[in-house]
Amino acid sequence: MGVSGWMDGTSTATASLKLVTTTGTGTAAKTTKTAVKGAVSQVSGCNVVFALDTTATKLAEGSSYEFTLSGVPTTESAAGGAAMALGSAVLSVGKVATGGFGYSSAQLFNALAAQTAPTGKDLLEFSTAVATVSRGTYTKGAVCIQPASGNFKAAVSASVQGTAFKTFPASLSAKMGQASACADMGTGSGTQMSTHCVRWSVVNGTASYTALPTQMVTVNGATATINVPDKVTCSLGGSSVPIVVTASAVPFSDVKVSLTTSIADDEKKTDNSVGITPNTGEVVTLKVGEN
Amino acid sequence: MAVVGTTATSSNTPLATMTAVVARALVNVMDVGMVSFTITPKGADWGSDGLAYISFPTYYNPNIGEMMRCSLYDTKAKADGERLYCNVAWDYTLRVMGPSTAQKKDAAFELRVYGVSMNLHAAAGNFGVGLTNATYWASDNKLTEFKTAADTTTGVWGGALTIDVTSISLSSNNLRASTDVTVAFKLPVTASTVMAASDFVAM
């Protein structure tokens, strides 16, 4: 099952429990289901605990129950979907104050059916499972989308959700017949140096393709360099000396570079720029999308 | 976790004044439970550049659990706060990425790890709780603060008879969707009545 939504809290698990009682036999048998009050008290990527309310009648040995777990994200990978029958689920009961006192046998658990893409749709994938981004900059070609097999059979566009991560261009677009569509990806300089679960929306092409899986993006703190020439030649009495400013990476937000006078660290505070007066407001702006 | 090297250049003598206290929930063998660490950093705030490395006693699973969920816990609201990315850095050692909002030094915060495979131990061991920041770790692989914290008392093996699962059905078998899982089961009657009065169901 796809569990990243539970791990990062973007999706919520809910559950309900019913006591199942059967009276009578044969054609006179009557089954009654009575709700047992409770709520999900603990959840991790692949485990959910449903704790009974303090007022609820506790579970009894010899009794039958029906447990329904809702909001379970299905698997995001084709390989995982095909292997659902091999998954081992275990159901347990116990006491919240201590722990479990009864478990089902994983080997005897009924097999789960295989999971596939909805009828008429093909899988859409990222070219790599994990993208790496240096915060404060855009990483060139960090993300590419492509069909699980072959080329795009229809025009597709997709964009990243939320505001923490942006792509350049903002939307990845592929025409029918294209093999993939790529974009630069970036995040602000204050983003956590961590691995982030990033979600995408498929905007165009939803009739032919599934949603994209959760993208894992690792953010590192590698810093980029702003380059300026180490010397320029000025003409006495002249002006308009061109100075080329470049950056080693595309900035995530505009970077402003200005020319200032150089004062030495010695006791005299020697003016290394004597005779040169930079014009006020001489600022170079490296804009998003250029370096 | 080795914290002190044998040479001056490899030595890692992190600040040892921080405090760390462990608590656990659902601790019986085969349980998938929760381990909580109440940590008070003393050297620096623990924020968006922060990392925590937590070594588990070796009677835990080397993978610690499966698909763990790490979270800051709001002790006043009694609810989980920010989710933190965590993974197994190496055997028995969990790495937790710092939160977007810094946890201030000298103030306690509670870090919860859900999805831990519980065990049976003869004598409680120690967790090694280390804090550092990503930049220092990337260059030196060293901690800035470290403290051991004792595990709590062992759980028990509580199983007696197997729960009989009579059916399971999913409302949807589509990839990348959401489904409801319905399981019908019957609790067996055990000689020791260990399952009587159970107050949780887990899956």
Structural class of chain A: mainly beta
> Approximately how much beta-strand content do the residues of chain B carry?
35-45%
Helix content of chain A: under 10%
Structural Rg of chain B? 20 Å
Q: What's the CATH architecture name of the largest domain in chain B?
A: Sandwich
| Total number of distinct structural domains of chain B | 2
Radius of gyration of chain A: 30 Å
Fold-level CATH name of the largest domain in chain B: Immunoglobulin-like
Main interface by residue count = A-B, 87 and 76 residues
DSSP, total strands of chain A: 22
- Label the overall shape of chain A: elongated
- How helix-rich are the residues of chain B, as a percent range? under 10%
Give the amount of beta strand of chain A, in percent: 35-45%
Query: What count of helical segments of chain A does DSSP give?
Result: 2
Low-pLDDT runs of chain A: none
Could you describe the 3D structure shown?
The complex is a heterodimer of chains A (291) and B (203). Helix content of chain A is 3%, strand content 40%. Chain A has 291 residues and is mainly β. Chain A folds into three domains: 105 residues, no CATH class; 97 residues, Sandwich (Immunoglobulin-like), CATH 2.60.40; 68 residues, no CATH class. The longest helix of chain A has 5 residues. Chain A is elongated, with a radius of gyration of 30 Å. The model of chain B has no long low-confidence stretch (mean pLDDT 92). Chain B has a five-stranded antiparallel beta sheet with strand order 1-2-8-4-5, with no helix packed on it. The longest helix of chain B is centred in the C-terminal third of the chain and has 7 residues. Chain B is built from one helix and 13 strands. The chains are: A mainly beta (291), B mainly beta (203). Chains A and B meet through helix 1, strand 1, strand 3, strand 4 and strand 5 of A and strand 2, strand 4, strand 5, helix 1 and strand 11 of B. Strand 6 of chain A pairs antiparallel with strand 13 of chain B.
